[in-house]
Specification:
Strand order of the largest sheet of chain B: 1-2-3-4-5-6
Largest interface: A-B, 16 and 17 residues
Strand content of chain A: 15-25%
Number of domains of chain A: 1
Number of domains of chain B: 1
Order of helices and strands of chain B: HEHEEHHHEHEHEEHE
Order of helices and strands of chain A: HEEHEHEHEH
Strand order of the largest sheet of chain A: 1-5-4-3-2
Number of helices of chain A: 5
Helix content of chain B: 25-40%
Distance between the termini of chain A: 17 Å
Helix content of chain A: 25-40%
Oligomer: heterodimer
Largest sheet of chain B: 6 strands, mixed
Number of strands of chain B: 8
CATH class of chain A: Alpha Beta
Chain lengths: 113, 225
């Protein structure tokens, strides 16, 4: 499944322009502590978080994540958006809270480790 | 920041006392202390510790303290993060808001293994003062990370970031009584030094005097801004 598929099926808003949405999503990770994502995130995971500050982009690059979904309708900070587009990290958003979003992702076959 | 530049900027800004508080290290303080020798500017060694919950806690120490054991304990509890080939810079590059402008994985994302209470205990155990950093910020603050400042956490003060006045901070966040509120520059570049300051009524620019001022002892105090 690609980010694009998930975005369509879950009605996710795509914040970043020019980022690769055809990336495959091979799994998922949900956490709001960056040190935790660094420790447990896997390559091509979709990261579900409420953190909107620019360091999330650095983490996504470091762990080669498929992309980031912000929950509760939260929007990326301006600098976050700029860095994400520079680093080609897709940042999307959902009006859902993390629990509901993760549940729906799981139901679509996006699993954790 | 070059120690000389730090000292020059601090003196130009009219400061009597500064502390060097790098993220998760005290090792650069000695150079600044040395550069300030004979200038009339007092410098304290310090640290901005990242707790396991990713809250920042300031540790301020006596100018003559041997921080080797403290630093060793910090490094023992700071997991090493494997770096990517792409990120080869040695320097940690962050802006004044602690956000990444350049990538250097180990230092930037170093959250120690110390929960907040242990971080405060470690600082106190080595004779330092523990101050909750920029509690008004939406990230890396005790309030953002823990939801509120835990009752009974033996902090010496809470810090408001430069973006708010102390009065506005009290209004926005509610009273922190009995903890005193301080406000520092959190400068990551020389030009930011002095952008926010706190006045203390003390007999000398030393850690012990600051401790008394924060506790309101012996006539020493924080001068309200």
């Amino acid at each position: 499944m690609t980010l694009s598929d998930l975005a369509t099926r879950l009605e996710l808003k795509v914040y970043t322009a020019g980022t690769p949405l055809e990336r495959p999503v091979l799994g998922g990770y949900a956490s709001d502590l960056l040190s935790d994502v660094i420790g447990h995130g896997r390559k091509d995971d979709l990261w579900v978080t409420m953190q909107v500050h620019p360091n999330i982009v650095a983490v996504a690059v470091l762990k080669e994540l498929a992309g980031i979904v912000l929950v509760n309708g939260r929007e990326p900070a301006a600098e976050t958006l700029a860095q994400a587009e520079r680093e080609k990290v897709p940042v999307l958003g959902s009006r859902l809270g993390a629990f509901e979003l993760v549940g729906r992702l799981y139901g679509m076959g996006v699993k954790g480790s | 920041m070059s120690p000389r530049a730090v000292v020059d900027r601090a003196r130009a800004a009219g400061l009597d006392l500064i502390a060097v508080t790098d993220h998760n290290t005290t090792e650069n303080a000695a150079a600044v202390i040395e550069a300030a020798a004979g200038t009339g500017l007092a410098v304290l060694p310090g640290i901005e510790l990242t707790t396991a919950e990713e809250a920042h806690i300031l540790g301020l120490f006596d100018a003559g303290a041997d921080l080797g054991p403290f630093q060793a304990e910090v490094y023992r509890n700071l997991p090493d993060i494997p770096s990517k080939k792409k990120f080869v810079k040695d320097q940690v590059i962050v802006d004044a808001a602690d956000y990444v402008t350049g990538f250097s994985p180990r230092c930037l994302f170093g959250a120690t293994l110390f929960p907040v209470h242990d971080a405060v205990g470690l600082i106190h155990g080595h004779g330092g003062l523990a101050i909750a950093c920029h509690v008004d910020r939406e990230s890396f603050s005790l309030v953002s990370q823990l939801g509120f400042i835990p009752a009974g956490l033996p902090l010496d003060a809470v810090e408001i970031s430069p973006r708010l006045t102390v009065a506005a901070g009290r209004t926005a966040l509610g009273p922190f009584d009995p903890l005193p509120i301080v406000r520092f520059s959190d400068a990551h570049k020389p030009e930011e030094i002095g952008c926010a300051t706190t006045d203390f009524l003390v007999a000398a620019p030393s850690l012990e005097e600051i401790r008394k001022a924060l506790a309101g002892e012996d006539g020493r105090r924080v001068i309200p801004s």
